[in-house]
Amino acid sequence: MKKCLTSLAGELNGLAHSPRSRQPRRRRWVWRSVFGLVLALVVAFVVAPGLVLAHQVLGLKKTVSRLEAGNRAHNFGAVAQQINTLESEIAHLRRTLGWVSYLRWVPGGVGQKYRDGQDAVAALNEGMKGVHVLLPALARIAPLAGYHVGHTHVRSGQQKIQAFVSQLAVLVPDLTRAYPDFKAANYDLALAHPQDFSGYLAPVGKKLLTAQSLINTVVKNMPLVDHSAVALQSILGYPHAKRYLLIFQNSGELRATGGFMTAYGYVTVDRGKLASIKAQNMYLLDAEVTYHPPASTVIATYLPVYYWHLRDANTSPNVPTTVQYIKRFYASIPGAPPVDGIIFIDTWFVDKLIGDVGGITVPTPKGPVQLNAQNANMKMEYMAEGQGLPDSVRKKFIGTMMKTLFHDVFHSHGLELARVLKTVNQSLNQKFILLNFNNPAAQKMVEEYNWGGVMDKNVSGDYLSVVDENLLGHKDNYVMSYHITTQVRRVHGRYQETSRITYRDPAVDNGWLFVPYHSWVRFYVPLGSTLISITGVDGIPPETYNNTVVNKTVFGGHVDLPARNAKTDPVATHTVTVRYWLPPGVNPARLTVQLQPGVNHQTLTVEEGAVTRTVAFTHDMIFHFPS
Description:
Layout: H1 2-16, H2 19-72, H3 76-99, H4 110-141, H5 157-190, H6 202-227, H7 229-235, E1 242-250, E2 260-270, E3 273-281, H8 282-286, H9 297-302, H10 319-330, E4 341-346, H11 347-356, E5 360-362, E6 369-371, H12 376-384, H13 391-394, H14 396-409, H15 415-429, E7 433-437, H16 440-448, E8 462-470, E9 481-491, E10 494-505, E11 518-526, E12 530-535, E13 543-547, E14 552-560, E15 572-581, E16 590-593, E17 602-608, E18 611-616, E19 621-624
Parallel strand pairs: 1-4, 8-16, 9-17
Antiparallel strand pairs: 1-2, 2-3, 4-7, 5-6, 8-11, 9-10, 10-15, 11-14, 12-15, 13-14, 16-19, 17-18
Helix pairs in contact: 2-3, 3-4, 4-5, 5-6, 5-7, 7-16, 11-15
Keywords: Membrane, Transmembrane, Transmembrane helix
Transmembrane segments: 29-54
InterPro entries: DUF4012
């Protein structure tokens, strides 16, 4: 028995060492090796970076929390410390994301989100570099934003402007050094796609969109401060005080530069401080004018008046031309104080400012009047034109209202001040504010940033500007909307253009605020254009002339919209169409369309060949088409 067991054990031992028995062991070793390698790769390229990323994100959250705490406490020292920490942590995060760059190729949206995240982090990294460069400058202007730096603390908007002016010259070198970093951040962030984040990630996309808008605004405006520091200081009364003539235009009664000039005022700025503000009814200033030239044919026929008045001087959509007209009237006023420039402010800007400061309370002989962004236009009209106040004082309401508003605006702070600054920026671009300065450097800056209502004299390619003037249409422009279209066709080797303006007036005639609309409309087109036809104007012969001041040919005519006597009547609509030949040499592949100041509800359609584009018309635009 023992012998048999020994023999069997020997045979089994032989089988174990045979070639066939060694193959399964090799396969098991290979599979274990492959599994170990895969596991090592997963740990090296997924787990380890994931743990590091999680640790870094947790650190970033803590730093951001400390930064927010310092911000809430308005402690600039604490904020600056956390900014330095954040800069270092974001740089480390960017390097860690590089370890998992293979994620950019993962399908199912993962790859795109990774690329978006990487672009966003790269932008943060570049932006933090710029912030670091700016820290010395930020320390100087931090009190302007309400931060404590030593014992310095500035609260009101007026104090902030004054402090900004005093620091402007020393800010420029830091801005110059930081600009390339912010420009790089803007470029990187523009590569990210907020729309890639949906569902529970939608808040990420929303924040990304906000960040893109913010950094783009910063990058656009940094050169303004950098290149125009001297001009800005001059405008803000440094080193010598400046006095400006303010003209308040009622956009409900549209005119070429934005509205009927209903009130005027003076503002004196001394080293960023508003020394005084005065505002009064324009008719009172007009009564002091001694220059009385005959009225133009259009004004004499449709207003109608025998003489041209200061209040009707803004007939040219080219603001520098209108300013020359105004100065001619103003210079004839005995004892009129000299001014360093003219600032036009229209109704839409005033509405926005009233909303920014949370409404205003205006004192009147009949008691205080509450105005907010929604009711301001109607209440102002009721007080100034309706039966709200006695005739002897009703026109003073606009001046009193503007003084009240300016007081609140220049004493704003915190989020309120931020809203005001945003409104000013938007209104400059939408031509709700127009600037004209005597100082050549200041005026050059204004024209460079298209804040002066200057009609483009030397245009490359095609051009169009449609200017509508409300003549006895009362205040219908509060609710009026416009649609402008222009279409170019090649006909027998020449370019023929058809441009239209379509009016839509939903107002119901009430006899004083809203009435059937009457206006004079002008089409400014390339100099040398030849009129083929004009339709939609009344029986008065239309105007056709060359305006050599702005290098444009002008086609114009008088418009009568149908009356709307009840809400059951159709909305009043009307279209004026001009058809004309473009002069030889004008290339319609590039079209410049300039916006009339004071227009708040307008769309634009441009068509050239097979290309048609329709946009909200809120600023000057240039279109390019295939040649």
